[in-house]
Amino acid sequence: MRTVDEHLADILASVPVLPPLDLALLEATGTVLAEPVTAPVSLPPFDNSAMDGYAVVSADVAKASEAEPAVLPVIGDIAAGDSGVTAIRPGLAARIMTGAPMPAGADAVIPVEWTDGGAATVRINRSAPPGHYIRRSGEDVLEGEIVAAPGTRLGATQLGMLAAVGRARAVVRPKPRVVVLSTGSELREPGSELAPGQIWDSNSFMLTAAVIEAGGVGYRQAMVEDDPRKVLESLEDQLMRADALVTSGGVSMGARDVVKEVLTGVGTVQFHKVRMRPGKPQGFGLMEGTPIFTLPGNPVSAYVSFQVFVRPALRAMQGLPPETLPTVTAVLAEDVKSPAGLKHFLRATLTSNRGAHMQQSYTVTPAEGQGSHQLAALSSANALIALPEDAEELPAGSHVEVLRLPS
């Protein structure tokens, strides 16, 4: 048997990095930037008002108060987008809107709430220092500054930043297109009637959702019965639209484990026993250059295998660090036992604690059901305890590594 780290290393050494694409901004949502983006101009590109109010020379209002307001003539209005702004002299004011360019000569903005709101003349009831409520050119971003680096996942705020510096398109690594397929003659579509010995297919729905959570585009393919010809045809049919394939079922030692039967010797696909629980039987390789991950059929085994092996690979395909799930150290709330020589992933509930000095710590409680078929315990868990191969027994109070599941 190989270790978890050995199997993952083999996967990461084989998966290709997706070639970059030039996409319109909204089409690039959720993709990973493949180029540095710099600002062609400073942001803001000009000094502008941070408030609706009046542009003034601060010296003219230095002594303004409720009892003795400063009274200034208003020479006009300056709106956002006004391109005809020039200057004001001392002793004058201009009504100005939020985002409008500051006129030369003015060095402060008085909020309209500090005035009587006059249109011809304005009574100002409070003083303001130079620079008051003025957004200076370049105080957000300087010309030439990198606003988004390669490897940045483009979410809403990142796309907003690219648009703010004038970019209509971006060169990105796309989301991996992943086709998910379950095998098994016992499987039926949810919503259909079950005959004796049949079960509803859950793995394909769970794994397709996991692909989306990991930043990919998931395509669920209808399950395939345990017929070698149909399994191979179904996989070959998906190669044209897939950057990766994920199967569940048919990879162990049974007489009807058809995935292992039909893929052994195809491309670089190989099957191994991995020193882990759940998820010992694993397969991986390239099928006509496309990565294929063959995961066990038990639901918990399939899900844990996805998070340990497929998720890091999908990140690597996008040019990202091949990280597993976010990890914290937590204190065990109960004693646990683990089989010798296997890395054991236990479903669990992770609880955050705040100490007297607001220091954060964690407590983790193993779930009651740990069988690889017990999906209920997984669906209510928010974490996986990762016990190393040499940890056969750990008492309550021990510190353990915990993987946080997507919420």
Summarize the structure.
With 407 residues, this protein is an alpha/beta fold. Helix content is 17%, strand content 31%.
Question: What's the topology here?
Answer:
Blueprint: H1 4-12, E1 21-24, E2 32-33, E3 37-38, E4 48-49, E5 53-56, E6 70-78, E7 93-96, E8 108-111, E9 121-124, E10 134-135, E11 146-148, H2 156-164, E12 169-173, E13 177-183, E14 187-188, E15 199-200, H3 203-213, E16 217-224, H4 228-238, E17 244-248, H5 258-263, E18 270-273, E19 276-277, E20 281-287, E21 290-295, H6 299-317, E22 327-332, E23 336-337, E24 343-354, E25 360-366, H7 375-379, E26 383-387, E27 393-394, E28 399-404
Parallel strand pairs: 6-7, 13-16, 13-17, 14-15, 17-21, 19-24, 22-25
Antiparallel strand pairs: 1-12, 2-12, 3-11, 4-10, 5-7, 5-8, 6-9, 18-20, 20-21, 22-28, 23-27, 24-25, 24-26, 26-28
Helix pairs in contact: 1-6, 3-6
Query: Order of strands across the widest beta sheet?
Result: 16-13-17-21-20-18
What structural class do the secondary elements suggest? alpha/beta
Poorly predicted tracts of residues: none
Task: State the helicity in percent bands.
Answer: 10-25%
Number of beta-strand segments? 28
Distance between the termini: 33 Å
- The share of residues in extended strands comes to 25-35%
The largest sheet is:
6 strands, mixed
